Amino acid sequence: MRLIFMGYHNVGYCCLEAFIDMCRDYGDDIAAVVTQADDPGEQIWFASVRDLAFAHYLPVHQPRDPNDPDFVRAMAKLRPDFLFSCYYRHMLKPPLLELPRKGALNLHGSLLPRYRGRCPTNWVLIHGETETGVTLHYMVAKADQGDMVAQKRTPIALDDTAATLLSRQAAAAGELMREIYPLLRTGQAPRVPQDHGAASYFGGRRPEDGIIDWSKSAWEIYNLMRAVTHPYPGAFTYHGGKKLFIWGGQPIKAAASAAHDPAPPGRVLTGLAGQGLLVATGDGHFLIQRAQWEGEPEFLGPILATWRHLMGERLGM
User: For the chain (length 317 residues), average pLDDT per consecutive 10?
Assistant: First the structure.
C-alpha cells in the first residue's frame, strides 16, 4: 500500500506516528507527507508533523495550495492507495480526493455529524458538552459530510481546557488509526452514512470572539474562558478602555441575599477570601483567579484580590 499523509498540529503528529509504525510492520509506504509552513504570526505550541517526517526520512511537501493542478499531478505520479488528512488546515477538492485507489479519509475532531466545521474542540467546551471524540470519515466535496468509518469517544472533564482536551483527542486519534487501518487496507472497515438531519456546523474562531458578555451565566462565561485560555488567545473584558484577559476562574453560586438585591452584570464585588475578583453575572458570580492587563504580567488570585480600585466598578465598559 502507498499512502499520502496530510497533517498538522498534535493530532496530525500522533496520527503520523501511528502510520510510521504500521507501515513499517506491514511493509507499506508513506509516499508523501504534506503539511503547511508554520504561520510566523501564530504561537507554535504544538508538535511538528514536518519535523517528525524529517526524522524518519520521509518526503515532505508544503504547498501553498494543495489543490493547485501542478501539485495534484505530482501526487498522481505517486499512485496512492489511500490519502489521509489529519488536522490539515486546507480544504481538499475532488481532483485531489479522487487520486487514491481506495479512498481519501479525514480525521475530524468531533463525533460527527455534530460539530462539523472548524475548531470543534473549542466549540464543544463553549457549549458545555460533557463528551466529544474523533471521527474518521471519507472525504467528499462538502466538508465533514462523507461516510464514517470509525469514532472514538473522549469524556470532557469540568476542569478541561481546550489544550488538555485536545491532548486526549490527539492520543485517541492515534489509537483509532492503529485500530482501523488494518481493516481499511484489507477492505473490511465499515462505511456508515452520516445522519445529515442531526448535523451541526460551526465556523472558525477569531481572537475577538473571546470577548466576555457578563450578562450571560457564570457557567457560560467559565466555558468560554476554558475554551480559549492558554495557549489560545484568551477570553477578555474591558475596564476604562483597557483590555483585561481572564486566563483562569470558576463559577460561584450567588448567595441567597444576592437574589433579592442583584448586582448588575460585570460589577466587581468584594474579593472572595483573597482568592481573586468576584464578578456579578447574569446568573451567579464568576471568580477571576488569573488575569492580565494587556501588555502587563499575568496576576494570580491573591494579588487580584488586592485590586481595591476595581471594587464596585463594572467590567466590560
Answer: 97 98 97 94 93 98 97 98 97 96 98 97 98 98 95 98 98 98 97 97 94 98 98 96 96 66 87 82 95 95 85 88
List, in order, residues 6 or more apart from 133 with CB less than 8 Å away: 110, 111, 151, 152, 153, 154, 169, 172
User: Using an 8 Å Cβ cutoff, are 233 and 207 in contact?
Assistant: yes
For CA atoms 73, 78, 83, 84, give the dihedral sign. negative
Domain residue extents for the chain: 2-202, 208-310
Q: Decide if 237 contacts 315 (C-beta within 8 A).
A: yes
Q: Which fold has domain 208-310?
A: Methionyl-tRNA Fmet Formyltransferase; Chain A, domain 2 (3.10.25)
What integer pLDDT is reported at residue 257 of this predicted model? 47
The helix-helix angle for 218-228 and 162-185 (nearest 10°) equals 60
Contacts of 237-244 spanning 24+ positions with Cβ under 8 A? 237/211, 237/212, 237/266, 237/315, 237/316, 238/315, 238/316, 238/317, 239/310, 239/313, 239/314, 239/315, 239/316, 239/317, 240/317, 242/293, 242/294, 243/293, 243/294, 244/291, 244/292, 244/293, 244/294, 244/315
- CATH class, range 2-202: alpha beta
Written as one letter, the residue type at 159 is: D
The grid coordinates of residue 170 equal: 490527539
Quote the cell numbers at residue 268: 466587581
Terminal Cα-to-Cα distance of the chain (whole angstroms): 60
- Measured CA to CA, the distance from residue 118 to residue 107 in angstroms comes to 13
Q: Which residues contact 170 (CB under 8 A, 6 or more apart)?
A: 9, 10, 11, 13, 14
192: buried, middle or exposed (CB in 10 Å: 19+, 13-18, 0-12)?
exposed
